Amino acid sequence: MIQPMAEPALEPAKERWKFWVTALLVFAVVGAAIFVPILRKRMKRAQRLQQQSEEQARRELIQPVPMNPSDPRVKAKLFWLSDADNSVLAPVMVELPLSSDPVLRSKQVLNTLLAGPVDVELRTLPPDAVLLALYILSDGTAIADFSEALATSIPSGIASEQLAVDSMARTLEANVPQVKRLKILIHGQEAETLAGHVDLTGTFAVNLDAGQAPANPVAAPAAGKAGALLTPLTPVSSTVKLTQR
Amino acid sequence: MLLDVGNSQRLKSVALCGLTILIVAGVGIALASQATSQTQPPAAAGTSSSASSAPAGQGTTRGPTGSAPSTQAVQGGLNVVVLDPAHGGTDLGARGTGGIQESEITMEFAAEVRRALEQQGFQVVQTRQGNENPSFDDRSAIANAQRNAVFITLHIASTGLPGTVRVYVNSDLPAAASANGFIPWDRAQAPYLGLSRKLGNQVQGMLTQRFKGSPDAAETAAIRQLRTTAAPAIAVEVSSVVVNDRADLDHMAPAVADAIARGAAAFRPLYIIPGAGGAAP
Predict the structure, then answer these.
(1) Domain at B43-278, CATH from 3.30.70.100, 3.40.630.40, 2.170.150.70, 1.10.10.10
(2) Rounded to whole angstroms, how far apart are CA atoms A136 and A102?
(3) pLDDT tens, position by position, B212-237
């Protein structure tokens, strides 16, 4: 008599336990169904915000030097490919408000050079290349640090790479007399070549006037001195310890 | 317990195997390093051109890796051409339409140029035989180990008027001889710039006769490959990988080869060994 009495008491307890577990499960499933998409959305938004801020920071870091309208407008001479003969450079006069500070001025003319001429076929530098930084040492060596696109997007070849370097050297020569040499870095690093051909280990002559001995009297190039590679071991460049390999 | 014994035996045998492999590898490495140190003759071995020597500490001077015919060289006469098909391996060089790769085309051109040079009586040493990519210094070292040689590096441009060919010599390098007469490895080209220009003009002249629209004289450029080469050295760049049909480039190869060979032959009487009898280039 006692046993049959106990069974009905246990049954409801079991049933209640099952009910609560089921309820809990249903609650968890419903909760997950509601909150997982919300969480996913939030994560996506957070990720996007982070990406945006990185992009923002990058843009702020590499944004071209703004032209100051109050600076005197001067006729800058920029060197792009010649319309008549794409294998040589030709000067183009562009009226720009240029700073008197040589570093700012160098940045302004190089950024204008990077932006390219009206006819995009005549550009010498890849459109996605960015001037990341530029410094001028006390000896007149300008160190221009470009993004990797300068090396990766430029058409590979002796002619195209030399024209790219020449366009920078001759543009600096024409507009920033304080710059005597140009050293090109790629993403902060010294590169052996621009895109497999032209030597970037040394500095390029920009304004080598009085006082500087000619590099090599035996083989004076016919086509201008700007852009000629100086060796890494000239007395001046060895003192700045930039071009040693 | 039995299992443990089995395991320990297996461990022992594995350890023994490992030790044996290590010993064999060690002996192999030791032998290999001995062999390489024996096959590293100084690039400055040539008595006639001490200028080609590299300074100590550069660590980049290596012996010739091609068929070195320097022992057969006739003193005073130009008879070796070191031919460099540029790029190779993972470095494809310029890439054009339809999968054209500079590294492949330069090898094809090199085969033609080699044939033409041999017909002119030159011995040819190539800086690469297949699709490998020796460093700039390795390629220069092959030329620097030769006596009475010139160096010609072959390139295909990605720009320029298709069907034209340009010859380049290295841009100016400051005179580099130090008090002891040695010149630094990284400016090995400096004493040869005059000769390089003469060679470049000869070759460019021959090329321009065949390829209208090419320049009349060799141009200058800061070419990394030429800077470390202690011999008259030029770069020949054919335009271009951007052609509609690869056959357009293939058709150019025999004429380019013939012009280079004739240009090198015409340079022979102009070749004066640097440093010999006080005749500076």
Answers:
(1) 3.40.630.40
(2) 8
(3) 999 999 999 999 999 999 999 999 99
Listed residue (B130, B124, B139) closest to B103, CA to CA? B130
Is the whole-model pTM more than 0.80? no
Say yes or no: B51 contacts chain A, CB-CB below 8 A.
no
Q: State CA B135 to chain mean position distance.
A: 9
User: Which of A157, A193, A202 is nearest residue B237 as measured by Cβ atoms?
Assistant: A157
SS3 label, residue B160: coil
- B197 contacts chain A (CB < 8 A): yes
The alpha carbon of residue A127 is apart from the nearest alpha carbon of chain B, in Å, by 16
A216–chain B Cβ distance below 8 A for any pair? yes
Asked if pLDDT for residue B252 goes beyond 80, the answer is yes
Q: How many angstroms separate the most distant Cα atoms in chain A? A: 125
Whether chain A has a CB inside 8 Å of the CB on B240: the answer is yes
Where are the domains positioned within chain B? 43-278
B37-70: pLDDT as tens digits: 333 333 333 333 333 333 333 333 333 333 333 3
Cβ pair B174:A230 closer than 8 A: yes
